[in-house]
Write a structure and sequence with these properties.
Layout (H helix, E strand, L loop, with lengths): L3 E3 L5 E3 L6 E6 L4 E6 L19 H15 L11 E6 L3 E3 L4 H9 L3 H19 L5 E5 L2 E3 L1 H7 L3 E4 L6 E3 L2 H4 L5 H10 L2 H9 L4 E2 L2 H6 L3 E2 H16 L3
Parallel strand pairs: 4-5, 5-7, 6-8, 7-9, 8-10, 9-12
Antiparallel strand pairs: 1-2, 3-4, 10-11
Helix pairs in contact: 1-3, 2-3
């Protein structure tokens, strides 16, 4: 059945009719893997689900998984020892859902756009303080607030070579960084990386993410050494 979320006026927005994130846990390694699913669906405000943009339904589903895996009511004997967030399709995360934000502002509900910012930063804060190793496994584009979300993880691996982009276009769009996001970027990047990513809006890719930005690894460069272990982890329990 369709998932529903309430806005501040008590109305209901119909969201994607299927789950946007899948979950599995390898019992042997106690590694939780969340996968942002590819989908042909379009949300009511026009955003394609496959872009994995940060909007209330995606973030709420993300938080639900974190609650069930790592929340205070979780069984301490089965709490995962690591978290991997992977994605299907062309996008790991294409940033904030600007269509959703525009719809709320146009309808006089700018406070809901502010709520989205707070929810996104809350998710980033939870990942930063999760207490177990975290990995952003990015087979495709990682852009704007999606890039910031990836920086909340301990490690980042991007595949796709020069066709997989990693950038923040805030300066091109005339957007302002929130204090929380500025703190995150300052903590995770050196001065040159902050300049190139935040002020110049430079477009990095899977090949330059490590060599030029120092923010992650090129999957193709490490896959040979990791292939045996990856096969073991992916095998059915």
């Amino acid at each position: 059945s369709s998932a529903l979320i309430h806005d501040s006026f008590g109305k209901l927005f119909e969201t994607a009719s299927h789950a946007m994130i899948s979950r599995r846990v390898c019992r042997r390694t106690r590694t939780a893997v969340l996968t942002l699913l590819d989908s042909a669906e379009t949300l009511p405000w026009g955003t394609r689900v496959a872009e994995h943009r940060l909007n209330p339904p995606l973030l709420s589903e993300f938080e639900k998984h974190l609650d069930e895996l790592f929340g205070s009511t979780s069984d301490t004997n089965i709490v995962p020892r690591a978290l991997v967030v992977h994605s299907e399709g062309r996008f790991w995360c294409n940033g904030m859902d600007l269509r959703y934000i525009d719809q709320q502002v146009s309808a006089g509900r700018a406070d809901m756009a502010d709520d989205l910012q707070r929810q996104a930063e809350r998710v980033m804060g939870r990942i930063l303080t999760l207490g177990v190793p975290t990995l952003a496994s990015m087979p495709g584009h990682c852009c704007a607030a999606g890039a910031m979300l990836s920086l909340a993880f301990d490690f980042r691996v991007q595949a796709g070579g020069v066709k997989s982009l990693f950038f923040i276009p805030a300066v091109e769009l005339g957007l302002r960084y929130s204090p929380g996001m500025l703190a995150l970027l300052s903590a995770k990047l050196g001065p040159a990386g902050q300049r190139d990513l935040m002020l110049l809006g430079h477009r990095f890719n899977a090949c330059t993410l490590e060599t030029e930005l120092g923010a992650g690894r090129n999957a193709e460069a490490v896959i040979a050494a990791a292939s045996d272990e990856a096969v073991k982890m992916a095998a059915p329990d």
